[in-house]
């Protein structure tokens, strides 16, 4: 219970809020990159407790939400094929493609299975050698080591009926894209602690220096986030732009060396499209040439997929921090968790899902 109760202390939260109020002298806008942080902020009402000068902007830190529509449609096409077992985490099943989702494919007879680890999918491939087993490998840097290790194990064990549909994205290039956008309002970042626990912080100082923004690594509990905000406000008020680690119980500067070695062996950096945002150079990973035989895109030849986004969905603006979910006219009306227009409404880390779940339902249509 230590790391549940210790970081939910109301008295310490009040002291941190008092210090933030005493420090801030002008409006500041900071972005929390991680969708898990967004849910914690909305669940606990942290954005409503902060002084009005401090604005939290929700960033593109939900891996399900930024998985491009093209990749979703490729997953649907593969999952619908005979003799394929398509494995995924549960929060991908309701993510809408152009005209259906994985639940629909399952209802139409596709063998779609929810698993809790890519290794579960590998076990299915071992038990059912007459089936082609595909795991939908999405995520930020956090989930990349497990997916890399699974492909590594498949090759080591000689399991040839397993493949990975890869849609991994990387945070630092997304920060670069946000800061170079012409309508950017972000003045600081709360960096995702779980990403940095894998990758470390080495990629961030150059970003902080070039764009003159503080970057503070934070966790996910209320006190983690408030401490991150406190340190960020202090830097902003002092005119500083450094990388600070406010999550030392999980994050080291060098990250996790074993995980980094596994990623480097199995993956290579590539350009990646982000749903609702567009192409960001060097922002993703794909399987390296040595492991290309386990790449589901190549194995099933799904390169000719054509996609159509919903014209009503404004999740791209939400992911870029340009729009709060309840400011979208479709939010809570034509777009709900049962009838989603975009992934941000159904992902467990989506901003729209957080606003809907925690009853931030006041719809404020904007032009």
TrEMBL record:
Belongs to the HypD family. Gene3D superfamilies: 6.10.20.100, HypD, alpha/beta domain 2. Pfam families: HypD. Coiled coil: none annotated. It comes from the Bacteria. This is Hydrogenase formation protein HypD. One of its GO terms (biological process) is protein maturation. InterPro entries: Hyd_form_HypD, HypD_1, HypD_2_sf. The keyword Glycoprotein does not apply. Keywords: Iron, Metal-binding. GO terms for molecular function: 4 iron, 4 sulfur cluster binding; carbon monoxide binding; iron ion binding.
